[in-house]
Amino acid sequence: MAAAFFFYLFSALATASAVMVISSRNPVHSVLFLILCFFNAAGLFILLGAEFLAMILVVVYVGAVAVLFLFVVMMLDVDFTELRQGMLNYMPVGGTIGLIVLLELALVAGSWIIDPGSLKSAASPMPTDVTNTEALGRILYTDYIYYFQAAGLVLLVAMIGAIVLTLRHKQGIKRQVIADQVARGPATAIEIRKVKPGQGI
Amino acid sequence: MQFLQHAQAMVALPEMVLAGLAMALLMFGVFRRDDANDAVTIGALVALAAAAVLVMTGSDGKGFGEAFINDSFARVMKLFTLFGSAVAVVLSVHFLKREKSARFEYPVLVLLATTGMMMMISANSLIALYMGLELQSLALYVVAAFNRDSARSSEAGLKYFVLGALSSGMLLYGASLIYGFTGTVSFTGIAQAIATNGAGIGVIFGIVFVIAGLAFKVSAVPFHMWTPDVYEGAPTPITAFFASAPKLAAMALFTRVMMQPFAAATAEWQQVLVFISIASMALGAFAAIGQTNIKRLLAYSSIGHMGYVLLGLAAGTLEGVRGVAIYMMIYLITTLGSFACVIAMRRQGRQVEEIADLAGLARTDRGLAFVLAMLMFSLAGIPPLAGFFAKLFIFLAAVKTGLFILAIIGVVTSVVGAYYYLRIVKLMYFDEPAEAFDPMDGEVKLVAYAAGAFTLLFVLIANPLLNLALTAAQAFAAP
Q1: What pLDDT score does A126 carry?
Q2: What CA–CA distance (Å, rounded) separates B67 from B39?
């Protein structure tokens, strides 16, 4: 009963906020509704028992992607009202594609109902005694350590590449060096001069 | 540490040491205030040498739950990959400084790319294959655009990146099909699944897509489009690197994928490889004729050479694999020598790349002209130079498996190809001399002359190398 209640709550909120993403006038509001939509989707994942996916959704999509969107929306001067002008013209095409995706999803779900055995033929059976975060953790750093480390190296190369190709050390820029500021004492900072009366320095 | 023992991580010791040293050198370069370029370059050479020693003394076997394999084939190929990378680093020392693009990241990226290549050579599962390939490719995309102030270099990097991403996509699609239809990513498991159930239409689809992805990496027709532009745009020592070690590693991976997991489907993939091989040989021979830029010419030449190597692989026998190994060794050294000669083409402090600039070189620099002539003769496959023996073993393997037409096409295209190699020799020896080149840097001279001596004296040292190739090929012998 409670599960059904939460399911309808989360899905209704997710749908409503998804509609708001494309219909709200202010793009910042759109991004905030997108974040709300992600949170509701994460809630649905938890209801399914996939708490790892829920966490990843919040961490990656809300924590990184949506914040990136927010930055882009706020930093770049994109005229969203102009972008939205032809919306009614594109409605039939967009609607058709949406309908096709809906039908395909229905087909996927339908095949589970017609042949419930197809769920069980997955290559790796669902672990029953542990949570799925623990199940992933058990193999990620043991059986899959090689792939995990290799992926880490790939990301390191991506980082080096981004820095090598874009970072330029500009000459003639004053930078704050805190160590220099801290190391500055009276001996280096103050100069005592005798000033003769009636004259400047 | 216990789980590392459990995973038999020691088989990957050279890779771990290389990656660790690369990261250490990266930290050294970042935190050293003044110019760390020379120190990091020397460190990179030491790291490559250390990895080579570890490869030679390491043990055979599988590690990380069958993801990683070390056998005689992997060891031989890794040694040559390390050698190629080291020579590429040596060649770049003065060149990048002159071009004002010497930064310590270059040796570090070469080390990481080499780690990726070694992972490719030792890959024993589809995921390991992809990880190694991506590590290598990503580092190569970056070094292609290394001279970021040059529009051509940036274009080369971008083009390589976009097309490389496309090919990775095809490879992954093929890998997912193979995983879906065989139920495993392990090469051993795939081989068993195909041997027991036969290669169904899904598996064959997957194999074709994997071949497409790998053909891109070795720049075989019809996935060669990036090669001339990237070769031309990238700084010359980096082009030398592209043409040598990564090609060898990708071809080694190609050989392993064809000979191990898909061994039972030889009849199916043979047709694909025969087509790719013929197309590459023909395009390499005919498209190079009209080129005026020597780097573009060498790019088409390398496409043609990949066609010959794939001809050996298409044979699908141990002899074919031996031919592939010999060809890649000789190709690696000859290509490095040729690019060393291209690096030596410098007038009044500026690099020149036109073939016409070589006119009359025999009268201005006798030694360089002789070395380049030997390398060109070798690439053309004229006896008794090294390139002749490379082609000989390939054609022998093809003829023994009954691929007569393929062998004949190979001989015909190599005669066509001889035209443009000999044109360079003619230009150097019989045309009116142009202005002399600037004196060569010591290391470039060393590489060029050593490669020239290798091609000339190959007959004398052929036996150990042939035996090495034979032991490498034995790794694929049926147990």
Answers
A1: 67
A2: 35
